[in-house]
């Protein structure tokens, strides 16, 4: 451990460390996992705090009708990787004392992660609060957030960890603030002095510019669940408003906060500008853990163009093989493969490319364009499930040029981001906070073809390391504007370069790797957290 750096407790609802440890849902968890791995690799004193989700996130199955269904099998493996510390903490939920077992996890080359687990018979009906990641709404979600936030601080005390900085990664952990304040008040400080005092040690990251992504609860529900944690209604309202917004609470409890890309910081400042008493919102762009996401053969051959190209050909063949084994589709490794994998939700517009069949279908028929999709809808998002069903239908229509891989996870992400020629990203701007899968693709020599949103605003050198489309236009007719812009770049730049100008394509691949490898690494991100957020 590096003793001159502040010791940070990193709170997050989910962690994507390894495929075998399914306690993550998507980007938020992968980021948290990458941070813990980079912390371990580069000796930053970070300790993770999370929950042990016995059933993890929902598993996606495509049924015979081509609709996705959400399944919730128990994930037995997690208990094999986690180590029992023999320690417990108690939190009060509603009128009951709930016991949380503390597990320790450090088997994935990660900085130590402590996971709290309510799965004990004596917890009766609260036994299941740590079953399913994001399976809880209202009261259940509050119970989960009491476990993460309040339970997390208690666990830190129980374990005797000496923590300098409490990093609330997303609003889910905001209730930790009530516990830190309560501790100070127990030692004699009044509420405002206690708050001012703990604020010095709290930093906050906001993640989503999508309204629904910013969770709030009525003060009545919080009170009922015992989330006030000895604070008064008035004090809770001062922290998070009424209804109580977890994001507003995070912004007010912290000394400094950040968005996860330059543009996202700006969007967040605008979005929260009327919140009095919030901390300044800066931007720290996300990054990815390279030993996890960049193929070793790419790293080993950096600077050797021929070897990089050869590796890329191999990785593409490995992807084609992976797809064949998984769902029988036979893609042609000599033709263009475009990847698109993200949460299936309206603003990410996974179906955009299909919107003018008279234009796109001939390319799918000839196989000149091959598309590979993957992504889950939120278990309760019927609209998102409809989007998946639509992609599955397209795959049936074009069985050897459109593929849908069910149950998107870290393994699929690894094959896809290594193997594809093009990584497509077409969110409705400015709703993509950062996006990290495009970084993974870029570092493996896949070219981004993306709306100028999230990290791509910083990463894109149009026509040099990838392409942008849509010219950043936001407003009426945006979808149609973006669709035609996508087609223009696809037909005028991407296809001609891929099929007729292999030299230029190869140069772009090298540029893609060279311009992203350092700048969008988790190492760089963590350095910035240390110099711009954790240092007082
Ligand atoms: C990298 C990754 C993400 C994040 O993807 P973005 O949509 O680009 O933010 C989500 N899920 C998995 C499995 C990943 O590997």
Q: Give the ligands present.
A: pyridoxal-5'-phosphate
Oligomer kind: single chain
Q: Roughly what percent helix? A: 40-55%
Distance between the termini: 19 Å
Beta-strand share of residues:
15-25%
- So, the CATH homologous superfamily of the largest domain? Glycogen Phosphorylase B
Level-1 CATH class name of the largest domain: Alpha Beta
> What is the total domain count?
2
Question: What is the molecular shape?
Answer: globular
Q: Could you describe the largest sheet, including whether it forms a barrel?
A: 9 strands, mixed
Count of helical segments? 20
Compute the average pLDDT. 96
> Structural class, from helix and strand content?
alpha/beta
Number of E strands? 19
Strand order of the largest sheet: 5-6-7-2-1-8-9-12-13
Enzyme class: transferase
Function: Phosphorylase is an important allosteric enzyme in carbohydrate metabolism. Enzymes from different sources differ in their regulatory mechanisms and in their natural substrates. However, all known phosphorylases share catalytic and structural properties.
GO biological process, one term: carbohydrate metabolic process
GO molecular function: glycogen phosphorylase activity; pyridoxal phosphate binding
How does this structure look, described?
Its cofactor is pyridoxal 5'-phosphate. With 536 residues, the protein is α/β, with parallel strands linked by helices. It folds into two domains: 8-287, Rossmann fold (3-Layer(aba) Sandwich), CATH 3.40.50; 292-520, Rossmann fold (3-Layer(aba) Sandwich). 42% of the residues lie in helices and 17% in strands. It is built from 20 helices and 19 strands. It has helices spanning 27-41, 77-81, 138-159, 176-186, 191-199, 219-225, 233-240, 246-253, 262-271, 290-293, 296-300, 305-327, 357-366, 382-397, 410-419, 437-443, 456-459, 478-500, 502-516, 522-534, and strands spanning 8-11, 46-51, 59-62, 68-71, 83-93, 96-105, 113-117, 165-169, 202-205, 216-217, 244-245, 256-259, 281-283, 336-341, 369-374, 402-405, 422-425, 447-451, 466-469. The strands form four sheets. The chain has a nine-stranded mixed sheet with strand order 5-6-7-2-1-8-9-12-13, with helices on both faces. It has a six-stranded parallel sheet with strand order 16-15-14-17-18-19, sandwiched between helices. The model has no long low-confidence stretch (mean pLDDT 96). Pyridoxal-5'-phosphate binds next to helix 1, helix 15 and helix 16.
């Amino acid at each position: 451990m590096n003793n001159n750096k502040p010791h940070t407790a990193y709170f997050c609802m989910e962690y994507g460390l390894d495929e075998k440890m399914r306690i993550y849902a998507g980007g938020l968890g992968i980021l948290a996992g990458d941070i813990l791995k980079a912390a371990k690799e580069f000796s930053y004193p970070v300790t993770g705090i999370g929950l042990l989700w016995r059933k993890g996130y929902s598993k996606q199955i495509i049924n015979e009708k081509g609709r996705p269904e959400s399944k919730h099998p128990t994930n037995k493996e997690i208990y094999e990787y986690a180590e029992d510390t023999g320690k417990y903490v108690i939190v009060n939920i509603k009128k009951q004392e709930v016991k949380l077992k503390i597990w320790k996890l450090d088997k994935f080359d990660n900085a130590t992660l402590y996971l709290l687990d309510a799965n004990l018979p004596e917890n009766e009906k609260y036994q299941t609060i740590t079953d399913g990641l994001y399976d809880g709404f209202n009261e259940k979600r509050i119970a989960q957030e009491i476990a993460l936030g309040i339970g997390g601080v208690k666990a830190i005390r129980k374990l005797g960890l000496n923590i300098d900085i409490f990093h609330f990664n997303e609003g889910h952990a905001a209730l930790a603030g009530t516990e830190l304040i309560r501790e100070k008040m127990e030692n004699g400080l009044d509420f405002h002095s206690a708050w001012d005092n703990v604020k010095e040690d709290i930093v906050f990251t906001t993640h989503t510019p999508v309204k629904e992504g910013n969770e709030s609860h009525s003060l009545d529900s919080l009170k009922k669940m015992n989330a006030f944690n000895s604070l008064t209604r008035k004090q809770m309202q001062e922290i998070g408003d009424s209804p109580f917004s977890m994001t507003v609470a995070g912004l007010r409890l912290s000394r400094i906060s950040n968005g996860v890309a330059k543009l996202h910081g700006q969007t967040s400042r605008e979005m929260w500008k009327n919140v009095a008493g919030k901390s300044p919102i800066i931007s720290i762009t996300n990054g990815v853990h390279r030993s996890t996401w960049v193929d070793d053969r790419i790293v080993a051959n950096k600077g050797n163009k021929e070897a990089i190209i050869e590796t890329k050909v191999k990785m593409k063949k490995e992807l084609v093989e992976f797809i064949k084994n998984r769902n029988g589709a036979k893609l042609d490794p000599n033709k263009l493969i475009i990847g698109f994998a993200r949460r299936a939700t309206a603003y990410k517009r996974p179906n955009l490319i299909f919107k003018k069949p008279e234009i796109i279908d001939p390319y799918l028929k000839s196989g000149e364009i091959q598309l590979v999709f993957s992504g889950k809808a939120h278990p309760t998002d019927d609209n998102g499930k409809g989007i998946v069903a639509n992609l599955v239908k397209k795959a049936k229509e074009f069985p050897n040029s459109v593929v849908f891989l069910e149950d998107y996870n870290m393994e699929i992400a690894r094959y896809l981001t290594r193997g594809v020629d093009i990584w497509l990203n077409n969110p409705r701007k400015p709703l993509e906070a950062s996006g990290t899968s495009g970084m993974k693709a870029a570092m493996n020599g896949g070219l981004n073809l993306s709306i100028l949103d999230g990290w791509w605003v910083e990463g894109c050198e149009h026509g040099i390391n990838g392409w942008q489309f849509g010219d950043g236009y936001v407003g009426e007719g945006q979808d149609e504007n973006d669709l035609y812009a996508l087609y223009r770049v696809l037909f005028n730049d991407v296809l001609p370069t891929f099929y007729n100008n292999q030299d230029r394509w190869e140069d772009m691949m090298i540029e893609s790797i060279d311009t992203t490898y350092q700048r969008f690494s988790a190492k760089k991100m963590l350095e910035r957290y240390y110099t711009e957020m954790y240092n007082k």
